[in-house]
Amino acid sequence: ELAQRMAERAVDVVKYFMKQGQMMKPGDVIDADTAELVAVEFGHTVKRVSESDVEEGLFDIQDNPDDLKPRPPVVTIMGHVDHGKTSLLDSIRKANVVSGEAGGITQHIGAYQVEQDGQTITFIDTPGHAAFTAMRARGAQATDIAILVVAADDSVMPQTIESINHAKAAGVPIIVAINKIDKPEANAQKVRTELLQHEVFVESMGGEVQDVEVSAIKGTNLDALLEAIILQAEILELKANPDRTAEGVVVEAKLDKGRGSVATVLVQAGTLKTGDIIVAGNEWGRVRALVNERGQQLKEAGPSTPVEILGLQGTPQAGDRFAVVENEAQAREISEYRQRVAREKAVARQAGQRGSLEQMMSQLQTSGLKEFPLIIKGDVQGSIEAIVAALDKLGTDEVRARVVHSGAGAITESDISLAETSEAAIIGFNVRANKQARDAAEQSGIEIRYYNIIYDLIDDIKAAMSGLLSPER
Ligand code: GDP
Predict the structure, then answer these.
(1) Given 66, 203, 298, 302, which is the most exposed site by the fewest CB atoms within 10 A?
(2) Which ligand 1 atom lies nearest to the CA of residue 183?
(3) For the stretch 201-213, what's the b/e string if a residue is b when 16 or more beta carbons lie within 10 angstroms of its beta carbon?
(4) Using one digit for the tens of pLDDT, what is the confidence trace for 81-111?
(5) What distance in angstroms lies between residue 143's CA and the mean position of ligand 1's atoms?
(6) 182 labelled as ligand-binding?
(7) Was 85 annotated as part of a binding site?
(8) pTM of the entire predicted model
């Protein structure tokens, strides 16, 4: 490759190495210093670029505003367990399959599209905020609108509140779907009132959040929900440039026995075509086929279209961003670079370089930020309220604690991913983290601090805020 870039014959480069007493064959790897020496020796001028330049211009290409065209909204369904997220996704899928093929068999590929009044809507087909935060943790924002499902017979529950906080942290507008309205004990008004306490103000309460009463099981009012989405999408004026190389995010990926690595991607800008060479996370490949949720092969996929791609060399992770690159060499170079960065990061994490109170404070100080994000989990609501109130009093003009999320119960994986995306520390008051959460925290280097005396907790936060926190107590 070095020979090629210098427009020399590979054999001459190999000969040069031989003269230096080094046996080399094409494909062997040399370091940058050696490459520079060789290039100079062959009479070329060397310009060193930073290693991360291999990725330059890959993502977030600035489009000319004139090239932007409207694109469908991408919707995620969130809410408490058993409130009907899966049922709602299923009934919407069954009722409105794109292009009049109602009843056609759709496969689960991680996302699907429906049509309402000639408008397309893309649904992320993994309910809950796990997928949502996994994506955000990798720097991708796939969702434009969050549907918050609240069962009318159960009202606002802990994961409802979590979902609200996740959506707010991401700056994604919410539409409330008050579900199970068919049940005799359904009380939609109670849901609306309870949502007020969490700063979700629905229209009938004088706010701007749309709410729709639905029954996922009976199929009641699904049209109204889809119309609410279209209305919200119009307000957002979602646009993308379809006429350029594609970029987007991996929604799901797996290794399929027959088909090799299969990844479902959501195209966010540009148009993805078969034959394109893409980089996705640490992996790369040439797109051999594009398949939609009905198993049909497509030639291309434009903005907001979810599509399965075949042809990747390895399996990327959900939430990885992908982009089309010029050629195989560039794809290889980027994926090698990324794999190395990922390894280095893993090593750094092992050393616990992130998320500790001390480090967060010093970061805050250097960045001039004024807020100190915290997630607080406690055994009972009463003690959480006491802690939040005490933290409020600690705030000064320079710095204050911002409670990103609080709730009763053990520390879970979802808390860890929220901590990751909002760069918060986690406080456990009389509660512990479960096994999965501990593993996730270790992996991502998020610090969890445990307390059983409020005074100690407040003292530590106070100390952290003044940059005086003693290491690990
Ligand atoms: P998820 O955990 O939020 O995905 O909830 P599911 O979709 O799995 O639903 C949980 C339970 O509630 C299931 O037994 C569903 O049949 C039931 N369910 C969901 N939607 C409705 C509804 O609109 N009406 C009634 N009566 N039951 C529902």
Answers:
(1) 66
(2) 26
(3) ebeeeeeebbbbb
(4) 899 999 999 999 887 655 545 445 678 898 9
(5) 23
(6) yes
(7) yes
(8) 0.72
